[in-house]
Design goal:
Helices cover 28% and strands 23% of the residues of chain A. With 519 residues, chain A is of the alpha+beta class. Chain A is globular, with a radius of gyration of 25 Å. Chain B has a domain of 112 residues: Serine Threonine Protein Phosphatase 5, Tetratricopeptide repeat, CATH 1.25.40.10. Chain B starts with a strand and ends with a helix. The chains are: A alpha+beta (519), B mainly alpha (330).
Amino acid sequence: MGEDIPSPCDLIVVGTGLVESIVASAASRIGKQVVHLDHRDFYGSSWATFSFNSLKNTLGLIDEFKEHTTQSQKEASDLNISLNSKAVCNAIEKWFILDECKTENDDSHQECEASRGKTSRINWTKSELLKNSRKFNFDISPKLLYSRGEMVEVLINSGICRYAEFKNVSGIYTFDASEGCLLPVPCSRADVFNSKDISMVEKRLLMKVLAMCVDYENKPEEFKEYESGNFDNFLNAHKIQGKIRKYLVDSVAMANDSTNFQDAVKNVQKFVRSIGRYGNTPFLWTLYGSGELPQCFCRCSAVFGGVYCLKRNTENIIIDSDGQAIGIVSDNQKLMARFILIEDCLNPLANIKSGISRAILITDRSITNNDQVAIITVPSANGKDPVRILELSASTMACPPGLYVVHLITRQVTTAVEDLREVIDAVFCSGEKEALDKPNIIWSLHFNINEYDSPEGKLPSNVYSCPGPDLFLDFDDHVIKARNIFQSMYPGEDFLPKVPDPEDVVLEDSSEDIVQENP
Amino acid sequence: MHGRLKVRTTAEQQEIKAKERAKKLAVYKVAMDRIFSKRKSGELDDEILKITGQVLTENPDISTLWNIRKETIVKIKNTFPDLVDNYVSKELTLTEQCIRVNPKSYNSWFHRSWVLDKGSNIDFQAEFLLCDKCLELDERNFHCWDYRRIIVQMSKTPLENELQFSTNKITKNFSNYSSWHYRSELLPRIYPSSSGDTLLDDQKLAEECNLIQNAIFTDPNDQSAWFYQRWLLFTKKESDSKENSKNSGFLSVLNDELESCQQLRDLEPNNKWVILQVCELLRRIDSLGNKKEILQLVSQLTKVDPLRRGYYAYLGSKIEEEKQKKTIPE
């Protein structure tokens, strides 16, 4: 198999995360020979989506992952690839239901029924869930697309959108801790018009501030005094208080007490401009999980000649005497290339700068009652970052009907369990304490994702390091990063131009011509 | 080189398109010739329906062909009255297809409403579903609003249902003249007023005022709700044209509306719609007593909306006139 890998080539990409995959497809699209490798047996690296069983394998819940100890011939100047570093770590799994319910004629049947009645009112058993393993799609890094964000534009312009399907997020909420309830955030003009939660004056103030933020660039003089300060100052100056402030800060601007004005306004703009393109809310969710997207880009790259190889190790990057990279050693084979792209987590020079605390839950009921995809923001308290909750129903292909998959995301402070305990207790019912109005947790998985910091200027100038997933709900920063890397490699080239319509792709000297020759 | 992928150039694409169009044109010409020769010899039969149908699905805006179909249907109705329902249902299918091609095709909508009259058991449920679908796609398609009024009349649908429909449409997007207008037609018939000041009974009037307030506070630049408010507050029953007959109940409604408009004006001091509405309300409440304030607002309007200064000047002169009229008899 090794002989099939072209060497030398234009670009070697190590790791199949999102940024790597976008750059790989963009390079293939302009005719560059791309070789794309991953030592894992799946696409997407820390962006992947897994079924029940494959998730457990990957996170080391079942220890199948061998340490990579292969030694290879290398010069002192070469860069070792950190194959053993794991961006996703500290996984803790917990079941809240019985393994199995014994069959009808079993003696202990009654006992089993009884204990089940006590612990929960859930009709599922562990073995049943695992039997449906492939009906689950768990995202390591669930992310949304702003309908007018960078990702949607790239997908449309390039035509790559045809490889995936999307659903509009149906509800956006913020959690009111004092009342212990969800507040639906009015997104569109129609939502504001219909809202019974806010007064007429509040409606006007909310719409006015949204309109002002959208018009920010055109009227800089109106914003001069707020520009250098926090978003908070701006809201105070415009008398935005109470519920509309919660809507704006928690869900529209995705901000907290200390977010600066400029960042918040940028988010408000993206939010408002994205409303109405595909529905009432500004977000799209990728069916079958966010992990589809890196694969879509890989597919595009492969269609245009990219060579793909999973389960293929990369031991080191070969550096020549000028300090430039000339290729890599992969499974003891030298592969030469003009440019090399690696994901941050494999970059030996990158350090862990911070982390994300994550939980994935399976629940028996929706928090919001009628949504297919809902985002709930639990605002920050005591200076901590907010917790974002993403609830997916069966219609997103995240789970079998009747169940819900819930993702929780926040900044890592201690452990994932500790960081998310308060929110999970407030919103869900876990095990013993039964609450009629809260969904029951059936299964939970907590883990952390490391965020890396790759120091500028330490890598050879033709080696690029790509960031992994971050705390943001959307992909936009990563798309921009990928475009910047591409443009620095191939200045002046088109970034992911439209893939031609299949009807316009013809084989030269095709049968049409032959028929004409031999009537 | 054989078997290599190649992308068609724009010129090649255009050439393929031109060929397709030429083919289409040839077929069209043959079909039209056949239709006209059949009509000339009076052969208004299944075949002529079939050919005109094929042409119309491609281009639903050829009135002549629709008229030939009408002739044919009328002929069938006269000669075989038992069969006509079958033909009517075929016409409904065809017009639906044509509406899909062009949702704003005058001919298709007109033909559909014409043919409804010819059948004996029309499924109005299906007709309403079609309207719902079309108005879902384009809530301002006036052809469809018209058609809806026709089927409401024919099917004797309760007006309350239609009011609910209009409410649903406004809930989805209140910037919809068609829907506000539909309400203004329906409400006075369902909830007529007992006094002469307005068209609606007190409770409905209050509900509609609230609906409007929600709209104008959400987006004061949207004219549709302002227009509806004018209709709601400033239209009197035709039989009752006496001036100054306001009962105290209606006066308090006007004062409430004035108060909420003033509140909105505090937030949007330069919005012309709110200033204009305050003017109109002040005039209705007490034209003489509020004269000074009204004239002041009129001059402000001239500044915020100079394009319509002529209209505002006229408004101001009317206020002056009103004073004179009243002062002469005194």
